[in-house]
Amino acid sequence: MATTELTEAAEPLAPAAPNTEAPTAPTSSPSSPAPVTKKRRVERRERLRKSALCKHFDKPGGCPFPNCKFAHGRAEVNDNDTHSVAAQRKLIREQAIHRTEEQFQTADAGAVTSKRRGTMIERYYTEMFSCDTKGKPMEDQYVHMHSNRLCVVGVAETHPVMQEELVSVEFTQSVLDSRVTGKKKKGGRFMLPDTILAVLKCKSGREFKLYSCIRGALIEVNERLQKEPEMLKQKHRSDGYLIIIQPKKVEVAEIQESLLSKDEYKQFREISKAKTQADEAPANVKEEPMKDEQMSELVKKEAQVEAVPMEE
User: Fold this and answer.
1) What does the buried/exposed string (b/e) look like for 214-234 if buried means 16 or more CB atoms within 10 Å of the residue's CB?
2) Cα–Cα distance, 218 to 220 (Å, whole number)
């Protein structure tokens, strides 16, 4: 009996059967690169490293985290990157100061006088535009960013819907179902640039889709447009806005880089208008009527022509 057990133990083990199951998805490890879905988040985290002060550094006992991503003291703060929190806050402050300085002008004698203050949008908002949204010609939308980082999204005055008779403004159900709570307005749906906000239906049968244009949390929806759709055309810069979005602090500079400023928008539309007129010019050329002097010269030439005698 003992010999049979020894012989069985001495026999080599059979090779393992090949695995016929479907291959599983590769899992990420610290040594392997991050998945594509997390690439944006990882890049932003690395970009913001050491861009803000640590809250635990100056407390008794110091920072409890060995690999803290925040700076331990002003000397370690890295605010040279344009996408850092400090740099983006500085950008908003500089834009607010620039708008304030534009409200005054200096005369030759050195006296400072107040000039026309303009509208509320011009005084407190940074005006940006999304031209030809989703590749559709002239379907422009505006994004007005306040100094408190809130963004108002609406329809630009060059949008084709301004020439149509608007029947209804239908917001998508996901936008209407978004709710915020608390003092800081938490819980709103996170919007992406290609998120559809509403569909505009015109009397002629045309329909236009409006988009979010930027990333951020949805704070407010202008549901008044459902009862008064014409307000979107009559007061498109004020009461006719679509939604209010709160972007992330670290994405302020990225949003402003992805859109056109007010001056760039005007220049873009002037160039496109000139190009359109140049393309339509050959088709609109008409034959000019002949002047009286030209007609008289033709009559004289015909009179000088000798008549051909008829054969008998």
Assistant:
1) bbbbbbbbbeebeeebebbbe
2) 6
Q: Are 233 and 166 in contact (CB under 8 A)?
A: yes
Rounded Cα distance between 293 and 172, Å, is 68
Residue 249 structural domain: 125-269
Residue 251 lies in a domain: yes
Judge whether 143 lies within some domain.
Answer: yes
Give the tokens for residue 297: 């010269």
- Residue 235: predicted pLDDT: 94
> Are the C-beta atoms of 232 and 182 separated by less than 8 Å?
no
Number of domains in the chain: 1
DSSP for residue 181: B
Tell me, what CATH number does 261's domain have? 2.40.50.100
In this predicted model, what pLDDT tens digit does every residue of 292-301 receive, in sequence order?
Answer: 555 566 555 5
Does residue 287 contact residue 157 with C-beta atoms inside 8 Å?
A: no
Measuring CA to CA, which residue among 259, 160, 179, 262 is closest to residue 217? Answer: 179
What DSSP designation does 67 have?
T
pLDDT at 217 over 90: yes
pLDDT tens, position by position, 148-185: 999 999 999 999 999 999 999 999 999 999 999 998 89
How far apart (Å, rounded) are the C-alpha atoms in residues 33 and 42? 10
Residue 241 falls within a domain, yes or no? yes
132 part of a folded domain: yes
The CB-side HSE value for 295 (13 A sphere, CA atoms) comes to: 4
Q: How far is CA 279 from the centre of its chain?
A: 29
- pLDDT given at position 237: 92
Q: Are 253 and 82 in contact (CB under 8 A)?
A: yes
44-67 confidence digits (pLDDT tens): 666 666 767 788 888 888 898 888
